Amino acid sequence: MREIEKTFQNLKKRNEGALIAYVTGGDPKPEYTPDIVEALIDGGADVIELGIPFSDPIADGPTIQAATVRALKTGITPKAILEMIGEIRSKHRVPITILTYYNPIFKMGLENFFRSASNHGVDGVIVPDLPIEEAHDYKKVADAYEIDTIFLTAPSTSTERLRKIVGYTSGFLYLVSVFGVTGTRTKVQDLTVNLIRKTLPFTTGKIPLVVGFGISEPEHVRTIILNGADGAIVGSRFVKIIEQNVENEDIMVGEIKKCARELKKATIRG
């Protein structure tokens, strides 16, 4: 059994949802990333999602785009981020996923990318611009290295396509909660609640359902979990804390840890 699956099974036994915390690798400086991830884990994050910066992040809103620019200016590379993950995994067993666009993987080569990802302890990879129709070779190599292939489904996804995506994904299904790009929002929309209810019959008993995009407050997380989702992804909220404290790492990691703790409490059912 892979690490992400174990994590969701253990959380279910404790009657908790998962807090999946996203930050951009190398933002604001590469040497900060391990400390930022450590703060997220200390705050209670159940899974870490680490972004590989890419010059054309089509799914990301202004906050994460700005983080990507900051990281790219440091000269960060996919190889350096994989090495960071190896450093983090030497201290922690919390599952780590990568969010990347397909171009950096293509440039490295599927075999090289997944060999390195496996050697450094990556548990899953999310590729927003990789459709299932073009994912056969990708998934074959990922499975050979026992790395989960995490696909996304959107508000516009048809029932037929949703069934196909559920059949392809492993680790969890990433439900994009709104139309548009990532970013904090003031409340969970009715659309999101309806999407969760629409999707659950296809995922229950097969794959954990996790909701992302626009999730930033404890009440957002609580609403999502109480409506049946198995986890919530929070990214822009953490990235904003980084942006506001780029010159003071101590305050940054302290605020990140505090924020993660508040969000994690909201995943507890009952």
What does this structure look like?
The protein is α/β, with parallel strands linked by helices and 270 residues long. It has a single domain (3-265), classed as Alpha-Beta Barrel (TIM Barrel). It has helices at residues 3-13, 33-43, 62-73, 78-89, 102-108, 110-119, 136-144, 159-168, 190-203, 218-226, 236-244, 249-265; strands at 18-24, 47-51, 96-99, 124-126, 148-150, 152-153, 173-176, 209-212, 231-234. The longest helix has 17 residues, at 249-265. It starts with a helix and ends in a 5-residue tail after the last helix. Mean pLDDT is 93; it is low at 180-185.
Strand order of the largest sheet: 5-4-3-2-1-9-8-7-6
CATH topology, what is it called?
A: TIM Barrel
Overall 3D geometry? globular
Structural class label: alpha/beta
Q: What are the segments in which pLDDT stays under 50 over at least 5 consecutive residues? A: 180-185
Judging by the overall fold, what is the CATH architecture? Answer: Alpha-Beta Barrel
- Looking at CATH, the homologous superfamily is Aldolase class I
Give the mean pLDDT.
Answer: 93
Fraction in beta strands:
5-15%
The topology string of helices and strands comes to HEHEHHEHHEHEEHEHEHEHH
Question: How many structural domains?
Answer: 1
